[in-house]
Amino acid sequence: MIKLQVKNLFIIFVAVFALSACDVFKIDNYEEPNASFNGGIRDVKTGELVETDIQNGSRMQFQELGYPTGLLTRVVMQNGEFRDDLFFAGSYSIDFNACNFYPFFVEEVVIKKGNNTMDFQVTPYIRVKNVNIIKEGNTIKATFSLEAGKDEVRLSNVCLYAHTDIYVGDQVTTFTPGGEGFRQDFSPTKVISDSETYTLTLDLTNEINKKYFQYERNYYFRVGAMATIASGGTSVGTIRRNYAPFTIINFSVPQ
C-alpha cells in the first residue's frame, strides 16, 4: 500500500514537472529590439559636437508615447555622440534635463524600424576654445579661452585633467595631481570674457606626479570648465561640465 502511494505521488510529480516545463520553454510574445537610434549633440553656433563626461555626463530621457512605461535614460558618449542599437520602433518624447547645455524638451520623435540618425542643436553653457596643451620641459601647460553660451552664464572653475586613456575627465581620473596650477576655482563665480586667456599647468617634478607619469606611453589631457547661472537667471536644473577634445602626449618623466 505504501509503495503504491509513493508510486502515485511520483507520477503526479512527473506530470506537474512536465506541465511546468512546457511553460518554462514556451516562446514568449515579447518582440525583440527592431531599431537603432544614433546621432550627435551639436553646438547650434559652431556645429561642433558638445563633448561631455563618459560617466555622469549629459543624458537623454525617453518616454514612449501612449504607453505607461518608465523613463529610458541614455547617456551621451564622451565625444558628444549617442547610439543605442537595441531600440524599439515607436514614438517617443525626449527630455534633455541634466546636461552641459541649456535643457529642452522634444515632444515627439518617431523611431522607425532599422537605423535612425538624428542630430540635436543645443546651446552649451560654456565653449572651451583655442586649446593648446604641450609639454615644456618638466611642465604640462594648457592655454585656452572660454565663451559663455549666454550672458547669464558664470564660471565656477576650470581644470586640466590627465589620464591613461581617452575617457579623461572629471569622472574618470586615476590620481589627484600634486602641486598647484592644474585647477582654478572662482568665488564669487566669474563673468566670462571671450578675450581672456587661461593657463593651467602640471608640475612633472612633483613627487606625486612623477609616480604617475613615470612610463613611456601616451597620456591624455583635457580641459574642462564648470558653469553656474547668475542669480535671477534661467532655471536650468543640473549642470554638467563642458570640455574641449583631449590632447595626446607621449612622454616619460626622467627618474
Please characterize this protein's 3D structure.
- The structure is a single chain.
- 12% of the residues lie in helices and 47% in strands.
- The protein is mainly beta.
- It folds into 2 domains: 35-122, Carboxypeptidase-like, regulatory domain (Immunoglobulin-like), CATH 2.60.40.1120; 126-251, Immunoglobulin-like (Sandwich).
- Strands 12, 13, 15, 17 and 18 form a 5-stranded antiparallel β-sheet that branches.
- The protein starts with a helix and ends with a strand.
- The model is unreliable at 1-26 (pLDDT under 50).
User: What is the total number of structural domains?
Assistant: 2
Characterize the biggest β-sheet.
5 strands, antiparallel
Total beta strand runs: 18
Q: What is the typical, i.e. mean, pLDDT?
A: 87
CATH architectural label of the largest domain = Sandwich
Order of helices and strands: HEEEEEEEEEEEEEEHEEEE
Helix content: 10-25%
Computed over alpha carbons, the radius of gyration is: 26 Å
Which overall shape is indicated by the principal axes computed on the Cα atoms?
Answer: globular
Beta content: over 45%
Secondary-structure class: mainly beta
Unreliable stretches? 1-26
Named CATH topology of the largest domain: Immunoglobulin-like
The termini sit apart by 88 Å
Tally of alpha and pi helices: 2
**CATH class categorisation of the largest domain:** Mainly Beta
